[in-house]
């Protein structure tokens, strides 16, 4: 199985995923905008067992109860997103979500949708034909 690698801006945190992401999408929600400092973020997911931190350790912020964003304490890059398993009726524990652009080669990602476009900034003009969802 192909191993894909990624990490944070400063290189302190490195990770590997086994195989390509199962799903990727652009999130425009206000929380992602603030947490990552960008207009939107592209998240990808793999099976939880297929995501491994290989060096460094993530710091976690849980501003919203039950939602944990993992980031590098040295450079601030947000790398992961995790929600308590009972949230939103989904089994979140089955998947590992990570910021797609932190892969060494983010071009392998194939985003499938835009979510939380209700929070999309008015100066972002989307030209792709991907489905758009008001929320997720
Ligand atoms: Zn770092
Ligand atoms: Zn978001």
UniProtKB/TrEMBL annotation:
<feature type="domain" description="CENP-V/GFA">
    <location>
        <begin position="4"/>
        <end position="124"/>
    </location>
</feature>
<dbReference type="GO" id="GO:0016846">
    <property type="term" value="F:carbon-sulfur lyase activity"/>
</dbReference>
<dbReference type="InterPro" id="IPR011057">
    <property type="entry name" value="Mss4-like_sf"/>
</dbReference>
<comment type="similarity">
    <text>Belongs to the Gfa family.</text>
</comment>
<protein>
    <submittedName>
        <fullName>Glutathione-dependent formaldehyde-activating enzyme</fullName>
    </submittedName>
</protein>
<dbReference type="Pfam" id="PF04828">
    <property type="entry name" value="GFA"/>
</dbReference>
<dbReference type="GO" id="GO:0046872">
    <property type="term" value="F:metal ion binding"/>
</dbReference>
<keyword id="KW-0862">Zinc</keyword>
<keyword id="KW-0456">Lyase</keyword>
<dbReference type="InterPro" id="IPR006913">
    <property type="entry name" value="CENP-V/GFA"/>
</dbReference>
<keyword id="KW-0479">Metal-binding</keyword>
